[in-house]
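so i finally got all the pieces together for this one. its two components total, 390 residues if u count the protein bits. some of the lines might not be protein, just check the labels. i wanna see the whole assembly predicted at once instead of chain by chain like last time, that was a mess tbh
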Amino acid sequence: ERVFIGDQVIRVNVQSEEQIQLLQALENQQEWELDFWLHPVSTELPVDIRVPHSSVSSVTEYLIAHNIHYSVIINNLQELLDEEKAEMEENQM
Amino acid sequence: NEFSTRSFNFGAYHRLETIYSWMDTLVAQYPKLVTKQDIGRSYENRPMYVLKFSTGGNKRPAIWIDTGIHSREWVSQATGVWTANKIATDYGTDASLTSLLNTMDIYMLLLANPDGYAYTHSNDRMWRKTRSKNPGSVCIGVDPNRNWDAGFGGPGASNNPCSESYHGPSAHSEIEVKNVVNLIESHGNFKSFISVHAYSQLLMYPYGYSCGSVPHQPELVRKEKHTVESHLFLSDPASGGSIDWSYNLGIKYSFAFELRDTGRYGFILPANQIIPTATETWLALKHIMEYVRDHPY
């Protein structure tokens, strides 16, 4: 079973068209294995990205280097999944 | 395992087998209203079932609702189960729904991506796509909501099999999509097509991303906006989507919902949010269905 220990979900409140293009470039960056939960579409909408643990430092460096502000909305995805699994087992019983 | 629909816990997430089993109990409990139709098999040979709510007639004007085409959006499937039960239990007591079902049928596909849904329970909770193999690639699956024959391969879709939004080798290449296409086309009298997703609490109309190129765009937006206040309309650049296809087919009232699943939890929405989500969604669904009933074309 795939685990998501240390995977983060980050939110970017996009400020400009240039930032949208920089984030769209990230979408094509296959080696970081990013999972866009909300895609970079417009400056009116946030962008949510699940970042695998192994790519967290690379992605944050990229964002900081381009002066793109972000916040972490899920710090460790696996913790939420463990809670969900426990809840399901409880319901099953 | 579920003795009746009454003992089923609608406020919990369930495995595919449990939902399929519950569908049988619903049919058994409301045999004059609900039937289960087998519409084909998935890539991994799982059956695909549609619940048909009908009070009689032959190919009456119908409303289509599918939930969970993106398998990880669990609140969608859970909302579908709650909604199916709501329709069955409210028929005969809710005057508006009763009048609707006396003239129209409702079809519900609760698990639009059964392979993906099973996979989210066993291997990868974040799986979104189908489970079909892509020749020449190690990556599995196609985004089934980029696979419809409407702007196929256009903006918002990827031609990379490893992408979460891979559109597939050709339109309707995914058997799960094709099964729905076959049913809708062979029926020929669907008046509304509603696809239920989850994340950002929105309601979308066809070809939203081209902003106004849809002839009925003013009606689709204006008529709903005033009453479905908790939902906004969004331009979503995603080609190959199901509601674009259904609109092209002539089904005017085509909408896609994005149920609430955002904020702190993402796709891991706690189960205690299922019933609030389903309840608020029902108001919007019912409003659209009433509009469809009252504005025939």
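Chain A has a mean pLDDT of 93.
Helices of chain A lie at 17-27, 56-65, 77-92.
anyway lmk what u think
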